[in-house]
Amino acid sequence: MIRDKNSVSDRWRVVIDGKNLALSQGTGVATYARSLCRNLAALDLDVHLLYGDRAAGPTPWFKKRPATVRYAERLAKLVSDAVPTKAGHNVLYDSESRYRLDGVSQYWRAPYVFDRPSLPLTWDRFQSIRNVMQADVAHWTYPLPALLSGAANIYTLHDLVPLKLPETTLDNKRAYYAMIRKITQTADLIVTVSEQSKADIHALFDIADGRVVNTYQDVDIPDDLLGEGMDHVAVTLAADFGLEMGRFLLFYGAVEPKKNVGRLIEAHLSSGLDIPLVVAGKDGWLIENELRAYHAHLANPGGPLRILRLPYVTRAQLVRLTRGALAVTFPSIYEGFGLPLVEAMLCETPLLTSNQGAMKEIAGDAAVLVDPYDVASIREGLKRIATEPTLRADLVAAGRIRAEAFSSAAYRERLKDAYARLR
Fold it and tell me: What number is the average pLDDT over the span 290-305?
């Protein structure tokens, strides 16, 4: 529990991990981490950020070491996993960091801080980090085998995909289960982002209800992007992608099995719709299975190209694509939250998504809901949303109301209530 604090406004010091922020390409967890930093700072908490060997941004904190040195370090790490030790990490204050994040007051780094233990007997051993920051709370934005000594440790579990849908990820399932079980046994608080994920955590692990709290997420699109004139959006979409405003459907996200892109493409190609489906997002694993119908279409188009693949777009381009689309299509099989759902609502774009799990929960009445396992159901949903203007107008109106539940103000209230449980 928090030391010598009476309320959230007593300026608790919170350390947030920068694991996903340091990746070369952004992720949903990185978006979550940036939002968490910004909103905790708005609650008047002193927010610090902890990185591993490298930080996000152009300049790493550590210069590249010779291969022989790196090999020796990894060998020492393997030995430390096998031999129990009480030694913590050397956490160093980073006074020269060029990377800055809204809401963060100080930056720290520690080597190997986010490494998972290497050997089966150590899968539930966590890295013990010395609390040189004198933090009251460590909030881990992702399930990590780490804990900060002398502080309350919060872990955000966005979902349990490796356990619920093991065939859709490359994780070592036994190691993942051991790590999550350790988290559920030792965490001061577990935060999650939907009632569906909360139910999954309770279903798979024996944990008291009061130790798991759903805060959802906030979803924010910069005003300068939301405020761009639609004429400018139309011109830019035509120039960048050859797309006509309101004459395409959009999916965005990593192309991987749980996103269900393969069935979506099959449904669109069999729908008879004369507008393209844009698939925007980086390549994930097993992408060849997800894009099999796409490659067959490329080989035998039989008319205009009906699937446009965009492996990378900038944030500004993505917002323009979302605003310019006839509808956002997101029939995912499993999500912890589903950022594209609320982003579509904020952009006042009609939405199609899955009729189960967190997708149904987040979308509420602001989407056409389809069976993600049934190509025919997805196809009929696409045809409805593409051909019924009254339906699209109703979805946009419902989306404006539904999006309010995921505003920054609403999110901060939920965060404040969650942190109050640590008193």
Answer: 79
For position 399, what pLDDT does the model report? 98
Residue 68 has pLDDT above 50, yes or no: yes
Max CA separation in the chain (angstroms): 71
Domain assignment present for residue 325? The answer is yes
Residue with tokens 């509808």: 327
How many whole angstroms separate alpha carbon 127 and alpha carbon 86? 10
Residue 182 domain flag = yes
Number of domains composing the chain: 2
User: Across the chain, what does the average pLDDT equal?
Assistant: 86
The Cα–Cα gap between 28 and 30 comes to: 5
CA distance 58 to 270: 45
pLDDT at 57 over 50: no
CA distance 158 to 166: 16
Residues contacting residue 156 through CB under 8 Å, at least 6 positions apart: 32, 36, 139, 140, 141, 142, 190, 191, 192, 193
Q: Are strands 368-370 and 351-354 parallel, antiparallel or unpaired?
A: parallel
Give the model confidence (pLDDT) of 136-167 as tens digits. Answer: 999 999 999 999 999 999 999 999 999 998 88
Report d(CA 321, CA 337) in Å as an integer. Answer: 21
160 shares its domain with 180: yes
- Whether the CB-CB separation of 390 and 383 falls below 8 Å is answered with no
Q: Is 275 in contact with 326 (CB distance < 8 Å)?
A: yes
28 and 121 part of one domain? yes
Q: What is the CATH number of the domain that holds 294?
A: 3.40.50.2000
198 and 258 part of one domain: no
Rounded Cα–Cα distance for residues 2 and 106 (Å): 20
Which residue range(s) make up the domain with 361? 223-405
